[in-house]
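Translate structure to sequence.
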């Protein structure tokens, strides 16, 4: 809570300066911290994202289904393709699958704005006490990343199946002096998992209703 109050004080103090930067030149007050300080602060943020990510995966990252592993695997490919994800690697025998797409997919632009609105205060609570006003110059945008989703489909009891998902951010435009970010923001992870499972359920229901000879 102290970090959040500190972050909000820094943001409130910086906003007038940012708004009038072109007129008054007060942007000169916002200086870039030393590289080691930036590394330290982003390492703290990455650790917080990782902790949140692990908790979300434990809650929502794995589901069991009363269908064969083969049907679950085919359904998952169709569900992810429906969300504009591109298959990079697949192994039906091992039950592994890797898909990717430019961020923020599988989220829409509107869903990404929800992520920004929800997670920016949390990011500020970590970065602003550490970086001061420099944190107000940092952008929370997805253009420099590809979202990678790895899936494993295993056989489960009673001829069922178990599907597990993980996700990472692949940096395509390295940022010198800033540690690589592997973990998507927590709200993004939640929304993406919900969207994938919803697409999976929709595709599975369609396949189960289709006559056997017409199933894809």
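Result:
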């Amino acid at each position: 809570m102290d970090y959040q109050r500190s972050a909000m004080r820094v943001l409130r103090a910086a906003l007038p300066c940012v708004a009038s930067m072109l007129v008054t030149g007060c942007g000169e007050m916002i200086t870039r911290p030393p590289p080691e300080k930036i590394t330290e602060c982003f390492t703290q943020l990455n650790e917080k994202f990782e902790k949140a990510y692990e908790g979300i995966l434990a809650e929502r990252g794995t589901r069991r289904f009363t269908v064969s592993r083969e049907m679950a695997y085919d359904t998952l490919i169709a569900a992810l393709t429906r969300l504009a994800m591109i298959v990079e690697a697949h192994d039906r025998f091992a039950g592994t699958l890797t898909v990717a797409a430019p961020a923020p997919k599988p989220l829409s632009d509107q869903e990404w704005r929800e992520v920004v609105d929800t997670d920016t205060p949390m990011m500020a609570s970590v970065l602003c006490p550490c970086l001061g006003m420099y944190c107000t110059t940092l952008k929370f945008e997805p253009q420099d990343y590809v979202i990678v989703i790895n899936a494993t489909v295993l056989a489960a009891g009673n001829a069922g199946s178990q599907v597990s998902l993980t996700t990472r951010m692949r940096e395509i435009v390295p940022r010198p002096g800033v540690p690589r970010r592997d973990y998507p923001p927590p709200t993004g992870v939640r929304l993406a998992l919900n969207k994938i499972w919803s697409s999976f359920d929709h595709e599975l229901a369609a396949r189960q209703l289709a006559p056997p000879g017409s199933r894809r």
